Queue: 2 jobs
Job 1
Amino acid sequence: MDAYLNSIATAVPPLALEQQQICGLMNQYYAEELSPRSLDVMKKIFLHPGIRKRHFAADSLGDLIMIRNEDPDLRALRFQNWAVSLSKEALQKAAAKAGIRLKDIDAVITNTCTGYLCPGITSYLNELLDMSDSVRVYDLAGGGCGGAIPNLQLAKALVESEKMIVAGIAVEICSATFQMGNDISLIVSNGIFGDGAAAFIFSPEKTGFKVLNSVSSIYPQYREAVRFIYKKGQLHNKLSPRLPEIIGSIISPFTERLLSGINIRDIKNWAFHPGGEKILGAAQAALSLSDDKIKISRDILKEYGNMSSPSVMFAVENFINKGVSGDKTCVLGFGAGLTIHGCILEAV
């Protein structure tokens, strides 16, 4: 049985701040805590034109400022409330776009890496929405920025094997991992990450995209290049300055395997995880792509920052809404592990 990606919908918190405003706040609250070098690096990152604004999971600017001294229990509750709220909004939109009722969904898959809930987000969605009690639920964790594509792969497999209607949701509250210090990884993270969610519907209904191929690769030798580590019980992001170079060295052979005989010239659209300007630049150079092929991913980065796993689906949403039958889209995500995941979509 063939499986089709019928719809994609996204959601972000209402609170949005421009980078210049965030930079001013960081200077105001951390000028005495950070070294002159760190402050200089922070300014360069925050004022880089690659990102214009980001959205944050807080009810007000005052609440957002409070996360600098956020109690761990309140942080966990903020993650729960916003992850569930954004997931619910995105799922309702995706179901409406696909023309299905929530109670007709046979399985729900969520993925996140920025907080932990047990039971998972799916339990809260089932409680809040008009869904069947017999719905299958899968809560995936630890995939990092690339987590949405394994979610999609699982959804596709369930449709093909059991003729299901499957909903997938990628949601990240990156602000729930906020830490600040002279560690460059933390400064970079605070300059690029935002909060958001993306949901999609997979079913046997022949609308949207068909997945022509999907592959993944894991490179544990690069595990330390991008990951979360625990310090005093709190998540701290770790990013190597070599990450763009690493991505650039492995993306070309990976993409060749993903294309599996499809001519790269036949790929009309490209949707990359917009991990940062240097990541996108390295991918573009390695694959010899023109600026127009990378534009949508750069636009997502500019308007939302790096939202971790949902980001790549924000890019794909642009193409599913404008798809012409036969158009092919290459989707590439990078995440912790180090992992690369990809799929080739064809509009039907």
Job 2
Amino acid sequence: MSSREPGRPSAARWIVLLLMATTLCGTATAEPGAKTPPEFRIAGSPWVGDAPTRIAAELGYFNPPEHDTRTREVIRVEQYDTGKQAFEALLGEEVEFALAAPEPVAIGLLRRTVTSRDPGDDVVILASVTLSNLSHHVVTDRRRGIERPVQLAGRRIGLVLDTSAHHAWDRFAEFHGMASDSVTLVDMPIGELAEGLARGHIDAAVTWDPWVEPITETLGDQAVVFSMRELHAVDWLLVTRREIALARPDITDRVLRGYLRAIDHIYRNPDALHTPPPSNIIWHINLGWSVLSNLDTQFEWLRRRPEFARSYLPKPGQYLEAGPLSRVAPHRVKLPAYIHSPARPAEPGP
């Protein structure tokens, strides 16, 4: 327990990075009278684990020099506050790709299965981009008489429901012997948790970087931070619609290559992050057992809810589409053959 963990980037630095990336993510300017080519949009978020999305956009890796933006589709990044919002944008067909933690993905898939008897396997996971075992924290105010995790019982806990923070809290509460009904969970937008805690609307906040920093800065020496290290791990998933993965291999392959280049750039040039690289983040494109296991864990967690208690739990493998990564980097696909078919060569899209 500490008021501030060493090495955590300041919120101001992450905001600067986000603004830089958003500015540089734009598409090429079309010539007067020219027909604007279709766009493919990737929904990202400010979480440090999503840095490869911002770096790839900033450096043009999704639209390399050999790509003629006057006649071919442009890949553009749009920013959302959370992976949950990004995934919802994918479901709403506002974007073609999204980055999200397994929790909102699993909830979206399972909810569609329950409400419409639709297996929902038109939404597929292409790869895991990031893995972290220390991204979530419980932050509270010492003046509320909270010095130990068990003292959170009977309190109001602010978080974004149906996100990785929600699952992380359940694991945290279970580890510390708190019953699920011993606290009141308050659903709040991620950007309002700091003010909610300061105004006394909640007694503690469950959040992740870069949103932890504004809260601890506001509370100063009165900030109490409980770590969730080893209690919860996050796979950051690249998700799309199956029709895109199958019909536009040129686009999916370009997206994956963009991520591979961005991650290589981050490790070769740590200064690209504008802050020391976090020790709790591993950027690595892969599609393997960790993704299968993580998605299966989410389904089991959701089964505790009344709305899913009698639901048939689908097999996680049906939501994995290994074809694109098998073409781009086959050694990064670690799945049994019965889950995926050999990749076919990519052909140019229409």
